[in-house]
Amino acid sequence: MSDETPTGDSAGDVAARVVSSAAQDIGSFIKSQREAAQVSLRQLSQLTNVSNPYLSQIERGLRKPSAEVLGQIAKGLRVSAEVLYMRAGFLEDRPASPVRDALLSDTSVTERQKQVLLEIYESFRRENNPRLDPQPEKENQE
């Protein structure tokens, strides 16, 4: 038997590779953040109420965590959930903003409340300045 895949990849094969790549990226990012914080996998499991085996699978890129699990991991590692959401592909990358930075660093507001406030803030900005609407990359690069 051969491990080679046919040259005519189906859309499902391509999608599976993209998901696998995203899972690997977020997993390795979480692992590097955990190691930088000098937290063991077992300690992170206790801090997040996420099982040790599941965290291990996430770090190895075998599983792609839900937004809820990412939020728990962010809390456990004391990093911004928005950063993890962007790395996992749940949010688009946004330019830095003092308002956004202040909101994200506020520990008295839940992660869900932060996301809602950021969405409202961005909608006001777009309403007041329509040029802030994101343009497709191709148009900006021509």
Automatic annotation (TrEMBL):
<dbReference type="InterPro" id="IPR050807">
    <property type="entry name" value="TransReg_Diox_bact_type"/>
</dbReference>
<dbReference type="InterPro" id="IPR010982">
    <property type="entry name" value="Lambda_DNA-bd_dom_sf"/>
</dbReference>
<feature type="domain" description="HTH cro/C1-type">
    <location>
        <begin position="30"/>
        <end position="84"/>
    </location>
</feature>
<dbReference type="InterPro" id="IPR001387">
    <property type="entry name" value="Cro/C1-type_HTH"/>
</dbReference>
<keyword id="KW-0238">DNA-binding</keyword>
<protein>
    <submittedName>
        <fullName>Helix-turn-helix transcriptional regulator</fullName>
    </submittedName>
</protein>
<dbReference type="Pfam" id="PF01381">
    <property type="entry name" value="HTH_3"/>
</dbReference>
